[in-house]
Amino acid sequence: MGFRSSILTLAIFGSSSGFSPLSVQNSALYHSRQYSSSNTISVIKNEYLEQNLSRNCFTKLHATKNKILIIYGTSTGSTEEVADLIAAEFGSDAEGPVDIDGMNGNLAKKFEDFNALIVGTPTWNTGADTERSGTSWDELYYDEIQDLDISGKKVAVFGLGDQISYSENYADAAGELHDVFKDLGCDMMGYTSLDGYEHESSKSVRGSKFCGLLCDMVNQEDLSEGRVKNWVAQLKDEGILDGTSSVSALAPEVDEVATAIPSTATPSSHDAAQAIAELKKENARLREMLEENSHMLDKVLEKQDDRGFTPHYNNNTQRTMWTSHDGRTCYYTDKAPKSP
Q: Which domain holds residue 221?
């Protein structure tokens, strides 16, 4: 038998004295006027059991922050193509890619939601000392970005350029993008080898490596996909996904049945594993409690037809929906209505 909705669950948890049929009839949700007759217990069941039991009554296993935001600037679409390849490699671990165009004034709020950033740019203002991307990055480097408080955030850079036509300034803009975030105290990662390229010089070289992933969609487009795969694997090895989830205790809504990890618990893997095991046991106990009370709840609800509820039996599902005369309250039972 399936588990009951928030209406039914309140019958179990709503009183410290235990279950009573009266608690069903007197519960606020039972007489709530915010649900129309089309709102069924099946819908409320998902809202209550999945959200309240899985999230509020137990420890939340994932941090509220997302993992990685992929953001890029582009002029011809080539940088976006590489950004798409990167996003495909990360899958659900990343959000985006998002174009930097139109993000003026929103960077602080957007960046705050993520633990790591992957930022990309083309190079158009060849030979320029600053603002070399030819995209909206140039408008933000020394203005809004300078006000961001993102010290310690993990950042990886990718850039595009033409190593043959502009061999002395290959992907220069990636170097500026790298330096802007590094100067803000970000944890830079994803440096790559110079091997396999034919340029003469680049402002994107730091020491003996590029400051990130560089792709040439003009002369070496066929190598881009492989370079992206290798780079994403490298970033994962360097820990770009580390520290993006944690065990954090939430105050349970029902103190009598919920068990939360104390706020003083240390976030070690041993403590986390032990806490998860305890929560699974508690979860199983609560579900067993719901199952045990379901028959009693059915009997209570079946009596509501004596209080002015009209039955509507569905032959396909073999369930009955009971609606009040004003159409503002309804509930389901798993049996056909009794003949008068």
A: 66-238
CA dist., res. 179 & res. 183, Å (int)? 6
The model scores a pTM over 0.70: no
Task: Tell me: do 32 and 112 sit in the same domain.
Answer: no
**What single-letter amino acid sits at 123?**
T
The answer to whether residues 100 and 19 belong to one domain is: no
Q: Dig out the tokens for 279 from the structure.
A: 């929560």
pLDDT digits (tens, 9 = 90+) for 264-298: 445 566 778 788 888 888 888 887 777 777 666 66
Q: Is 248 within a domain? A: no
Query: What confidence tens digit (pLDDT) does each residue in 139-155 have?
Result: 899 999 999 999 999 99
Pick the closest to residue 117 from 90, 157, 64 (CA basis): 157
Q: Find the CATH number of the domain harbouring 220.
A: 3.40.50.360
Residue with tokens 């309804």: 330
Angle formed at CA 210 by CA 82 and CA 112, multiple of 5 degrees = 60
Overall number of domains in the chain: 2
Altogether, the residues listed in the chain come to a count of: 340
Sign of CA dihedral 31, 35, 36, 42: negative
Q: Helix, strand or coil for residue 224?
A: helix
Q: Tokens 């190593």 — which residue?
A: 163
For residues 23 and 79, membership in a common domain is answered with no
CA distance 77 to 231: 21
Residue 289 lies in a domain: yes
